[in-house]
Design a protein that fits this description.
- There is one protein chain.
- The chain is 29% helix and 16% strand.
- It is built from four helices and five strands; from the N terminus they run E-H-H-E-E-H-E-H-E.
- Strands 3-2-1-4-5 form a five-stranded parallel β-sheet.
- The protein is globular.
């Protein structure tokens, strides 16, 4: 893949988002969200990411219903949902309501790249990142994204 200005080493024309700027963007850190629930996910990382992806189909249609700190604009759908996967979960397939972006390197760098390109393509676009990673929270906030924790979407 080609290098880009974000330094994540990956480009995807769809990173800027496929829907109009009026549709809020929800970017989910799969590794962090799956890892927040000790349910044996480490025995089947791909299966765990697929279960999260399937749960996000409802979130895409209805909005974020769990957790604290999620802004009101994401509590109703539709939302454009991007699930960023890495490592053993890279084989997670997309479904119509959830776009899956596989990071060949750092998942965090890929998430920052997705947010950066989406906001650059649609200035003022509302973007929410789901992660508990403190460093990632700061990095995406620098690009205008808001952040909430894993309980906003998992478990449902």
């Amino acid at each position: 893949m080609d290098d880009d200005a974000t330094g994540d080493g990956e480009t995807d024309d769809r990173d800027a988002g496929e829907r109009p700027a009026a549709v809020p963007l929800l970017v989910v850190d799969a590794a962090n969200v799956v890892g927040s629930v000790p349910d044996g996910w480490w025995r089947d990382r791909l299966g765990a990411a697929e279960r999260l992806r399937d749960a996000l189909v409802t979130v895409a249609a209805r909005g974020v219903t769990g957790g604290e700190g999620a802004p009101p604009w994401c509590r109703t759908g539709p939302l454009e949902v991007v699930l960023v996967v890495e490592g053993a979960a890279r084989g997670t397939a997309e479904v119509a309501q959830v776009r899956v972006v596989a990071a060949s390197g750092s998942g965090d760098d890929r998430i920052v790249g997705v947010v950066e390109r989406a906001v650059a393509a649609h200035p003022g676009r509302r973007c929410l990142v789901v992660t508990a990673d403190r460093e990632l929270r700061s990095r995406v906030a620098a690009h205008g994204a808001l952040v909430t924790g894993p309980r906003a979407v998992w478990p449902v």
